[in-house]
Amino acid sequence: MSKVKQIPFYRDERYLSAAAQVVSGLLVVALLWWLGVNFVRAAEARNLSLSFGFLDRPAGFPISDPAIPYTTNDSFGYAFLVGVLNTLRVAVAGVVAATVLGTMVALARLSSNWLLSKIALAFIEFHRNIPLLVLLFIWYFTVFRELPAVGESIVLPGPIYLNQRGVYFTWPRLIETGWVFAAGLVLGILASIALWNILRARRELTGKKTYFVEVSIAALFVFPLVGWILSGGEPFRFDVPSLQGFNIRGGLRLTPEFAGLFVALVTYTAAFIAEVVRSGIQAVDRGQLEAARALGLSGFHVMSFVIFPQALRVIIPPMISQYLNLTKNTSLALAIGYQELFSVGKIAINQAGRAVPVFLMVMAVYLMISLITALVLNLYNRRIQFVTR
Fold first, then answer.
1. Which of 381, 373, 383, 387 is nearest to 92 (CA)?
2. Helix (H) or strand (E) holding 247
3. Every domain of the chain and the residues it spans
């Protein structure tokens, strides 16, 4: 019986592959080290401080429309936090609104109604073929800055007041015991999601009815109802705006800068989301549609329970890019004076003279927001993908 000749380690593909990866990793680390050392030396030669000690000093500059209370005596670090929150406020609200508007435009684009379909097509083509900065200027300078004075405000049902100082509308505000209702609402949402997943998995495992839909809906209503009762039956009050003298009192105010940025980001991103949703819906096999109709399902049920759940598997990956683009595009707010992360960072550079640390912080925040957004949506996308065996 002949003895099998063993391959020498220096010719074994496994050892060679491992060695190549180790060498490549060392080269990358060495390159990064070399770049870092040269960067530090260049910064020192130009008297550019790389320390973050300035974050404890008073900022000394105002921030219009801060998301949390802020004064000029607060530190640079606190001012930076306000900028981050201003960015998140626009980004989160913009993502939700753009998703809703984009989905509606996509459904209109697929409508059998010729006029509705062409209006949706015109909306998509208009917003996709002009730069976002131009659209931002259109909304801010030609719409919100051209609104009438406070005394001649445009009053819409609600009431909603439109004037040069912004948009005022009715807003629910929690009272002292309102936090109990808010906690119940949050617990209800979390419990509903948990019960949906647990009971649905149990039904698939055992084949027995678990009534996961009914139980989840019940949890969604029971917890807030308990919070409502414990809070005294009136956890919030509606703060209604009203014209008093030369100003609007009460309600929630959106400044012209915030409103212009928000509308521009939402309409611009919605046009791209509409195409993503449309392509995802059309990617579903037509046989699924015909089978659902053969079962007697209505158009709403066909879209809600058959087409759209399958289309999400195609929609989610490109949707992540649109959400990230919207978040990063908030930096264009600098052009109209809304002070978000990038704008606050620019002012901090002028005040403290620390360009490198500030830019590192700005890049780190944008990177963190992008990674968290991508992680959450990728986890959801992985969950809804088909499992092949």
1. 373
2. strand 247-249
3. 76-144+258-384, 179-232
